[in-house]
Design a protein that fits this description.
13% helix, globular
Length: 329
């Protein structure tokens, strides 16, 4: 099984295999430059049996480079929610390609999750990572907070609630030994958070939020379509200060958003899809296009908190309500 693709440059393309954990480095011609097998994750929490591996079927499996040879990767214990000591699990490892060694492990799930008899799929469990100016930013899909770590020591420097106005609270996770239909219903309807990115031309960070949608359609059938899912992006600065939030509607597929220095490129979905010519249309067309979320949109959103204190106060009250008691476990 080949995992997520990480594009560092045209001649530095990376794929990974989950178990045994292997990272392949390709060039643009498809030639394997290097194969790095991770034989020891250097974990203190690992128990006997199957060793941990790498993620492969969720976007959190992409690698985050902190310099030429060092990268961050999410660790998959293969059965995290059934670990007897899951509150000790470190979800991120730093790997050195030059030595083929894991040099550190850090970042744990929030206690509200790790200490409860629950279960979540990988998409809702493992963290997104971002490196910027000697700091590592970490955000979990089922956690309102964003965490900032020192790149050298891997010690946490800051934690801040950066919740969406459109996610009043996260729903209860699945319980251990849940029914298959409960799992399906959860994936169809529940809200969660997506990736975090830095946009250099704007000097702003963003976090994607996936809003809850109705489980059933008007005819009583399960609402399996992605067409009704709405999204927003939360804007914040390098000190984790909230700046604003943009509601994005439901016309574009933000599950596959591509970050750019000035915003995002996203494809249309359902009846609004731009089809096969989407990328050429966006890159080459000089006409305004709602599928490109760029500088003008992000800049205008920054005025939301300067026009009065109402929005800021409303946001903070939501953060307070999303403390430990917001997850009814």
């Amino acid at each position: 099984v080949i995992g997520q693709t990480t594009f560092k440059s045209f001649d530095s393309i990376y794929f990974q295999v989950p178990n045994p954990a292997i990272i392949f480095h390709f060039d643009s011609a498809g030639k394997v430059i290097k194969k790095s097998q991770i034989d020891n994750f250097n974990t203190e929490w690992e128990i006997g049996g199957t060793p941990p591996g790498l993620l492969y079927d969720v976007p959190q499996g992409r690698l985050t480079f902190t310099d030429q040879n060092k990268l961050l990767m999410a660790i998959d214990p293969f059965g995290l929610w059934y670990y007897p000591n899951k509150k000790e699990i470190m979800t991120i490892a730093e790997f050195d390609l030059s030595t083929n060694l894991v040099t550190s492990n850090f970042s744990k799930l929030a206690p509200e999750l790790s200490e409860a008899p629950i279960e979540l799929l990988a998409l809702y469990t493992f963290p997104y990572t971002l490196y910027h100016e000697e700091s590592i930013y970490v955000a979990y899909p089922y956690d309102h907070a964003v965490y900032k770590y020192d790149n050298e020591t891997k010690k946490i420097k800051q934690e801040q609630c950066l919740a969406s106005e459109f996610i009043p609270k996260l729903s209860s996770p699945l319980r251990i030994n849940h029914a298959d239909q409960e799992n399906i219903n959860f994936q169809i309807s529940k809200a969660y958070y997506g990736e975090i990115n830095y946009h250099s031309e704007m000097n702003v960070f963003t976090r994607i939020a996936f809003h809850e949608k109705e489980l059933y359609k008007s005819d009583g059938k399960l609402n399996r379509s992605a067409c009704d899912r709405t999204y927003s992006i939360i804007l914040f600065d390098e000190e984790l200060n909230f700046l604003s939030e943009i509601h994005l509607g439901n016309l574009d597929l933000w599950e596959r958003a591509l970050p750019t220095p000035s915003g995002y490129i996203v494809s249309g979905k359902c009846s609004e899809s731009s089809g096969e010519d989407y990328f050429n249309f966006n890159v080459k067309s000089s006409k305004p296009n709602r599928h490109v979320v760029n500088i003008p949109i992000i800049k205008s959103s920054l005025t939301m908190i300067s026009q009065g204190k109402y929005f800021f106060k409303k946001y903070r009250s939501i953060c307070r309500s999303q403390a430990k008691k917001s997850l009814p476990l």
